[in-house]
Design a protein that fits this description.
The protein contains twelve helices and 14 strands. The protein has 328 residues and is an alpha/beta fold. The strands form three sheets. Strands 3-2-4-5-7-6-12 form a seven-stranded mixed beta sheet, sandwiched between helices. The protein has a five-stranded mixed beta sheet with strand order 9-11-10-13-14, with helices on both faces. It has a two-stranded antiparallel ribbon with strand order 1-8. The longest helix has 16 residues.
Length: 328
């Protein structure tokens, strides 16, 4: 194990896969000479050259289209869309090409590419660089959606995504890049579609992903001082969703809070709540609580920005209410 930052873990995964497989290529805005805006691809062009680590024009349509075409021709692209806010610019390539071409062509083609992007609030990046649009892409059949919360999962899931024969949208959180944690040395793979129990507990289940896992763990620590044992489930991948792990947790705790940073209305938390209601209704002692961002643009002011998204205090309050309602 090595103690690495989240960004360093991603860098290690990319290096490992590019050294292992010459068909892996990286391209996007500023990924080459500059090394990426968050330095995930630093020094990689010096090792692999501009043919395998290529800077692109500022055109998300071009980047996503290159990923589709290159993967069809035998390469394994890792393309970067600098912020998830700009992902709608390449929805045609995802929605009408990547997600359907294997189907309409009778599985005569595969599209093994990864679209890396960064989302989330908390960095004071303003309304056009801070959204959480994971629900939008998770809605599309044929696209896998990954959101790691820890450095170890960032490395293992990115390596697994690069090896996956399907298109994967890999969503990183800007706030997580400097978080640190133990990361296995050498080859490390984490199964796509498998959730993790980030903290065991018996009184209430908190289901979260990405940065909200960290906030949920803080909430669980605070609840423990009150005698409430909260179990935190890190779903890790939104599609495919490991519903079995979530349902089994709710069957043990009988209460559940789902947390995501995207807008609450129509957000991914609604899918989680519906899944729990469908498969664990008989075990619930209280309604499923659902936390998400306020239905408004992300403010530039950091105090206002943080006020629009869930945090540990709000998560703890929702869990506390669920436990009280269950006992009532």
């Amino acid at each position: 194990m090595a103690e690495l930052r989240y960004a360093e873990a991603l860098h290690a995964a990319l290096l490992g896969e590019m050294r292992r497989d010459s068909s892996v290529v990286v391209f996007g805005e500023d990924v080459g000479v500059y090394g990426g805006v968050f330095k995930v691809t630093r020094d990689m062009q010096a090792e692999f050259g501009p043919e395998r680590v290529r800077d692109t024009p500022i055109s998300e349509q071009v980047i996503a289209g290159m990923a589709v075409g290159a993967s069809m021709m035998g390469l394994k692209p890792v393309a970067e869309i600098m912020y998830i806010d700009f992902l709608p610019l390449c929805l045609d390539q995802l929605l009408n090409q990547a997600s359907v071409l294997p189907f309409v062509w009778g599985d005569q083609v595969t599209l093994p590419f990864v679209l890396r992007t960064q989302g989330g609030a908390g960095a004071g990046a303003g309304a056009q660089h801070s959204k959480s649009l994971e629900a939008m892409v998770a809605h599309i059949p044929g696209i896998k959606v990954v959101m790691p919360a820890t450095p170890a999962d960032a490395k293992g899931l990115l390596a697994a995504a690069i090896r996956d024969p399907n298109p994967v949208v890999f969503i990183e959180h800007k706030f997580l890049y400097n978080t640190r944690g133990p990361v296995p040395d050498g080859e490390h793979l984490v199964e796509i579609g498998k959730a993790a129990i980030a903290r065991p507990g018996g009184d209430v289940t908190i289901v979260a992903s990405s940065r909200m896992v960290l906030e949920s763990l803080k909430a669980a620590e605070a609840l423990a001082t009150e005698g409430i044992s909260a179990e935190v489930v890190d779903i890790r991948t939104l599609r495919p969703l490991d519903a079995a792990t979530i349902v089994e947790s709710v069957r043990r705790t009988h209460r559940c809070v789902v947390v995501n940073e995207g807008w609450r209305f129509g957000g991914y938390g609604a899918e989680l709540a519906a899944t729990i209601g469908e498969f664990a209704f008989g075990w619930l002692d209280a309604p499923v609580a659902r936390l998400g961002a306020l239905d408004m643009p992300v403010p530039y002011s950091q105090p206002l920005e943080l006020a629009t998204i869930p945090d540990a205090a709000r998560i703890a309050a929702a869990a506390r209410d669920a436990v009280r309602a269950g006992h009532g």
